[in-house]
Specification:
This protein is α+β, with helices and mostly antiparallel strands. Helices cover 30% and strands 25% of the residues. It is built from 4 helices and 6 strands; from the N terminus they run H-E-H-E-H-E-H-E-E-E. The strands form 3 sheets. It has a two-stranded parallel sheet. Strands 3-4 form a two-stranded antiparallel ribbon. Helix 2 links the parallel strand 1 and strand 2.
Length: 118
Amino acid sequence: AMQHQILREAVENQSPDVIIVDEISTPDEVEAARTISQRGVRLIATIHGDTLPEVLNCKERGNLFGGMMSVTLADAAAAQRADKRKTVSKRNREPVFQAALELHERERWIYHPKVKVA
C-alpha cells in the first residue's frame, strides 16, 4: 500500500538510473511511475493484464501507456482516412514505457517494441 511512496523516495534520495518494480496497479503507483519517467529514470515493471489493448483501455493502468480517448475528426480529415471513420482513438499523453512484453504462456510472448504506436 506504500509502494508509490517508496518509489518516489527512491528517486528523490538515491538518484537511480533504473528502478525495477513488481506490479504497478493503483492510481497512486501509476502516478509515481509517470513522475519517475518524467525525471529520466528508466523503469522496468510488471503490470497485470491479459493484453496491451486491455491494459491501455483500463482506467487505472492505461495511463502508463498513454491512455486512450475518442476524438471526432472533421469531415475533411475523416475523408482522407482509408476507413473514412469520423471517430478515432488517440493517446492522451506520452507513455511511461517505450516497450512492452505480453507473457501469455511459457513459450508464447508478444513483444511491442514501440508502445507509442502499438
